[in-house]
Amino acid sequence: MKTFKEILENRHAYAKDWKARTGGKVLGFYDTYFPEEVAYAAGLLPLRLLASHCEDALTDRLMYGNCYCTRDIFNQFMLGRYDYVDGLVSIESCQWWYNAFDTTLIEFPELWSHYLFTTDYVDARTSKDAVFSELKIFVKRLEEWIGKTVTDEALDNAIDVYNKNRALLRQLYQLRRFDRTAVLGSEVMEIMLANQVMDKAEANVMLESLLPELEARAPQEDGVRLMLIGSETYDAKLEKLVESLGANIVTDELDNGTAYILNDVIPMKNRLMAIGLRYLGKPHSALKDNVWRRRPEHIYQLYEDFQADGVIIAKQIYCHPHGSDMYAVWKLLRERNIPYHTFERDTTLPYEETKLGVEALISMIKPGMTRLHGWSK
Amino acid sequence: MLQEYGKWPESAWTGGEAIWKSAKKITGGADVGTTSTQVAILADGALCGFANIRTGYDFKAAADKAFALALGNSGLKASDFSGIFATGFGRRNAVYATGTTDEVLAHAKGARFLYGKDVNTVVDLGGQTVKAVRLYDWDRVQEFKISDKCATGFGRHIEVLCDLLEVPITEIGEKSLQVETDPEPVSTTCYNFAFPETVGLFRHGYKEEVYSENDVLATHLFTVAWRVLGTVGKLCPLDIGDISVYKELGFTGGLAKNPGVTKRIERKLGVTALTSEYDPALAGAIGAALLA
């Protein structure tokens, strides 16, 4: 059986193979607010578009601004790496995602596309009605595209598959709890990323086989336990760097980390409403943490649950949602005396510069201050 | 031979035999930075030798040369030390080191050595990056921020500017302070942008017709100070807790000797920069020696 790491590294080959095996279509999406269950119920492969670290000599003339993540995804379309993608969906997210979506459609007008509005105020009284209404439109357009009806049975199956997937991934996260750390942060991140480009039924089979193996591992002492928060991440390089310095990322607050798995679709007679409520109720992304500002407390709760010793905030350069969000997070971390280090990621992860900051954070925490060794002056 | 205006004076000193012969513990620290390299030798916690030289293009040669200069004619060998710690971007090139430490902790420790245990805010003005550190009352880092843009080149920026303007590096700080008000800063992003911007200003007669040489220096040093303030400003705001402890600030690094930068930061933050009998460029090496 292929490992998650192999699938992540050969994700384009995986999707092409899936198409050949099933005869289905691939629907690319940008943001984790996209309700994958609906596309899955329609027989599509919802494919999270992930950035890579490839050379970019094309996109500068075609799009202005943009963070590295969105620019690179567009670049991969231009290089033909996403030539198997049949359709694109963008949800209401940051302006860079929308710009990438829009520019890609200018260059590739043959792609089927849909813009799915998701309210920025996810807590508002009328948000669920707005999202339900948008999902109905989306289902109708999907049905026109694939030429068949999305049935309640198909939606129920998709909900079951995705709920199971999230539950299995939550079990994976539990393997880094304080009392028994069995996996490394880099291993978990590779599984999380591979999972997002896979057919979830296939991912579930792999996870069910992998989890007992991981649970059987001898618990390891992971030194300094760190939490990672910030912008999107598309590889496990930072996690590996942290591990090389004698620490471990034990939890995160990332869109493709805990925010992807912490809540399930609660079955309701109105399936679309149930799916809509799951996405509105998921841990708020930096862009949608309006009105109540729930993120800082949520981050603190995760920090406590996983008994972390410090926090790394890795913001993508030009990522304005996290640029404005991190001040509220800093405030809470300072007030609660939690050691943290913030830095900006660029196209690549500059090893020595990043190491300098992470090493300083670890040495700030290490001398007798980790939870393992107790807190002292 | 053309004068190289950006070259700052190197220095080295080794204490007399009496200091290190009677010492119970001798430790060393090497700070191998992008622009300069320092080595400090401590005998029972007292400075008994140091060297501060330009790194040049060969990190290893600089690390070896600085160590040899600090040892002087003492007859000490690396094996006589209880420990030698290296820090800085080129730390791996100090092959005689028995361990390494990060720059943040090294400069924090070094600042406490230079300025006393009451210093709570330390700003390292290095050749490549700026590090702002806040310390607890006890000997531990509370928070730190590192300048995060590429090619920040703080100290290196000044060296290039001196060569361009043909003004010795030791004079530019005082000269820049002679202006009544600081002109608009040149590019605050990095010196790679600031340099051609300055050349462009000269082409349009900026230097001769619009402003004096001091104005050009002022605009550059204001730019550097502005970027430092951006990093320091991200530290825990002064309105949290007892602000009285933050009224003093300890600068470390080679740029700490440039009043054109430090005075502007002092004015803007409303703080007083502490002074020391030791060269602030040695802070990283002293801190590493204390940790060894």
Q: Outline of this structure?
A:
The complex is a heterodimer of chains A (377) and B (292). With 377 residues, chain A is an alpha/beta fold.
Instruction: Measure the end-to-end span of chain A.
Output: 50 Å
Oligomer: heterodimer
Widest sheet of chain A: strand order? 2-1-3-4
User: For the report, how would you describe the main beta sheet of chain B?
Assistant: 6 strands, mixed
Over all CA atoms, what is the radius of gyration of chain A?
20 Å
CATH class of the largest domain in chain B: Alpha Beta
Radius of gyration of chain B: 19 Å
Number of separate helices of chain B? 10
Count of individual helical segments of chain A: 15
How many domains is the backbone of chain B divided into?
A: 2
Q: Which range best describes the helical content of chain A: under 10%, 10-25%, 25-40%, 40-55%, 55-70% or over 70%?
A: 40-55%
CATH superfamily (homologous) name of the largest domain in chain B: ATPase, nucleotide binding domain
Assign an overall shape of chain A.
Answer: globular
In CATH, the topology of the largest domain in chain B is named Nucleotidyltransferase, domain 5
Outline type of chain B: globular
The N- and C-terminal alpha carbons of chain B lie at a distance of: 42 Å
CATH secondary-structure class of one domain in chain A: Alpha Beta
Structural class determined from secondary elements of chain A: alpha/beta
Largest interface: A-B, 21 and 19 residues
CATH architecture of one domain in chain A: 3-Layer(aba) Sandwich
Note down, in words, how this protein is organized.
- The complex is a heterodimer of chains A (377) and B (292).
- With 377 residues, chain A is of the alpha/beta class.
- Chain A has a domain of 132 residues: Rossmann fold, CATH 3.40.50.
- In chain A, helix 10 links the parallel strand 5 and strand 6.
- The termini of chain A are far apart.
- Chain B is 36% helix and 20% strand.
- Chain B is built from ten helices and eleven strands.
- In chain B, helix 8 crosses helix 9.
- The radius of gyration of chain B is 19 Å and the shape is globular.
- The N and C termini of chain B lie far apart (42 Å).
- The chains are: A alpha/beta (377), B alpha/beta (292).
- The interface between A and B is medium-sized, with 21 and 19 residues.
